[in-house]
Amino acid sequence: MTPRLAAYEAIAGSSAVTQLRRLGEKLAGFRVVHVNSTREGGGVAEILEWMVPNMRDVGIDASWEVIRGTSRFFEITKNIHNALQGRPVDVPKKDWRIYQDVNEENAERLRPLLEEADAVIIHDPQPAYLLKLCPGRRGKWVWRAHIDISRPFRPVWKVLRTFVAGYDASIFSMAEFAMPLPHPQFLVPPSIDPLSEKNRELELSEQDGVRAEFGIDRERPLLVQISRFDRFKDPIGVIRAYQLVRKVAPVQLVLAGGGASDDPEGKEVLDDVMEAAEGDSDIHVLLLPSNAHRTINALQRLADIVVQKSTREGFGLTVTEGLWKGKPVIGGDVGGIRLQVTDHHTGFLVNTFEGAAHRIRYLLQHRKQAMQMGSTAREFVRENFLLTRHLRDYLTLLHTIRSGSGDPVVYL
Amino acid sequence: MKPFEVKDCALLMRMSGLPPAMNLRELRDRIATCDENAMYHHFCETTLRPTFDDPDYRNDFAVWSKLYLGDRVLAERLGILDPYSFPGMEELRAVVLEIIDDRLGELTMIPWVRPGDEFLFKQSTTVVFDTGERIQDPKDLHDAIRRMTNGSVYYHFLEALRRPPVGKDDFSTWLMDGGAEFEPYLRILGSIDIQFHSLAHLRGDLARALRPAEEGG
To answer: Model-level pTM?
Structure first.
């Protein structure tokens, strides 16, 4: 047993890891190629970083290829990405031509590997056109959409649909994110890595260090929202909720996120947040570097209540992270947050800053219940939202597409 | 007595291909035409799905009626249905449709949900595999169950109910071969009300129920 998968036994349970090994044994030597557009940075690369070695660990001949493209290509695919998430961004024909040309250049390099693979998993829209460029493919091709494409900007979706309709299957994170396609659409929710810097256990001394670094008072309750400075994350709403609570309880607030400096929209939101927080030394607005995973981890652990008051959200993995740290979460009643937060059970769903303030006050008054919610939440994450479950879903998918029967039960 | 072969299973969800239901009338029409596997998924496979919730009801139609349609009367009527008490999904479907039709007859307007709260029909593929583990002696069963995955518990205790012999879980079927000595255990297994258990809780209850008398069972 190699250390990597074995390391999860203590957290996910040995039966969960044994289950993965058994599913993997029956796929021994199965050649799987993942293709995406970046080796580092972003959620997809984070997933593939653990997924590929762990697939190998259970016996699959897994590999990971990254397409290469010009900066113009990535500007275009960013537009495609935004359009798929509903922004009315037009992608003219000449841009689609560049998109196809870059895919063709990559196909020249990757074709032998992709055509020989038993399964090819193409992540997101950037490399989606590769399917059309590999006519000699012998395996099953699956398109994995990591984003919510349920309400896309139609002109862009209409073009992309012609590229992805030919796949043997697609994968979405949630049923709510899917679009009708002429092939099976599987559902694989995301997960967190409990051994990553962002989620691993931290010594109390390290948490104390972060507390001291940002001048957080140990004696008073702390509310924490971790998110980009983006209007959909509603940081101003969180400040308003804090201000309402502050009238009756001496709480502190941390709003921490990164990546705003090179994002004009993010900069504008950050400026608004700074203005709203001005003059209150108990509001800590932290612009963190993208690799500040341990700091984020510590802040979530220091929190009494984790807040994710988004008005629009994908799955919302920061909620899963907060729940994993045993914190009740007050979340916006949108997207994947609704799957994770159940009133009185793992936290509270809210629609307004007034609602958030009300629930914060409730949890501050019911500390025992808040702790119980936190421990319930942590067990839900352990059972369902760690990467072991995520890997199991992929192994199950590989068995399903390999059987090709379409039967509801596949016996190995 | 033949050794008990421990199987395991893993579930992969997929979209059913049906359009979402925005109101009770649409829910009724989709249920009338949906694949049996979609019925099975929404009634029986809910415990095996990744979730953060431990809802009041084990079937998705009852949960949706309560949380999104806001119709607690319908939720209660659907929530009490035990899918395993029906010979098959067609019989269950007929009863569900009757309950919804009755409710539609009682209401003066059709309840509907806001965008984003639609009922999305799903189904799943279950991959079943042999773990290679064998239990030789019934006295070891409780310990083996304690170590089982949720998939094994689901397969042997819930999914088994629809395999021949229909209505019997695999543990009971095996213990019946052991003779009268195991009858008390069969009675306890038969008394576990699966409607109110997550698989993790069920595993604990099963292990406790099958603990030999000398160990306090």
So the answer is: 0.89
